[in-house]
Amino acid sequence: MNRQSIPWVILSLAVMVSDRLTKTLVERMTISGWRRSVIPGFFDLVHTRNPGIAFGLLADTRLPWMRIALIALSVVAALAMAWLLIAGRAGGQRSRAGIALILGGAAGNLFDRLLDGGVVDFLLFYFRSFEWPAFNVADSAIVIGASLVLLELLLAHHPETEQA
After folding, report:
1. How far apart are CA 23 and CA 64, in angstroms?
2. Is residue 50 one of the residues assigned to a domain?
3. H or E segment and range at residue 50
4. For site-directed labelling of 29, which of 4, 48, 102, 122 has its Cα 20 to 30 A away?
5. 100 part of a folded domain
6. pTM strictly above 0.90
7. DSSP 3-state assignment of 128?
């Protein structure tokens, strides 16, 4: 690992630890199904378990191999992100930050899947009848990280396209 990778690895670890800490607090201080309004009509803290992927996708799938597939996908994603960071192949600053966030989030959710078969979600945003699926710190890091990588790709300077 080169010295330039160290801050990004630390960011990944910070995301994973923050994710684990917040989930542990929710699990220890509430019961499953608990809900508390923080901003009425907009934001609640909840305690739900999601056996699917981010934002409740595939949560209703009862296929016996789904847990194994999600664990395998998380392992592959985490290893790929770790390799990009450690090998110095993550691109610019935005992409490195994004990949570090994705790695931390993937590792946080992977830890939960290995431990309990699903992840704890506790952040719930809604407006009137529209309710976004509950999510957690890891999911947030993954979405923010993917957005940073996409932003870097969209803003990247490509001299070969200017010659055409």
Report:
1. 25
2. yes
3. strand 43-50
4. 102
5. yes
6. no
7. coil
Residue 76 lies in a domain: yes
Q: Which is the catalytic residue, given 19, 44, 112, 139?
A: 139
Please give the torsion angle defined by the CA atoms of residues 13, 80, 118 and 109, in that order, rounded to the nearest 10 degrees: 20
Domain of 116 in residue numbering reads as 3-127+136-157
Q: How many distinct structural domains can be found in the chain?
A: 1
- 162 domain residue, yes or no: no
Structure tokens at 126: 């809604």
Question: Is 116 labeled as catalytic in the residue annotation?
Answer: no
Judge contact between 118 and 49, C-beta under 8 A.
yes
Cα–Cα distance measured from residue 60 to residue 76, given in angstroms and rounded to the nearest whole number: 23
- Secondary element (H or E) of residue 46: strand 43-50
Q: Which residue has the tokens 């979600």?
A: 121
Q: Note whether 77 and 102 are within 8 A (CB).
A: yes
Rounded Cα distance, 44 and 126, in Å:
8
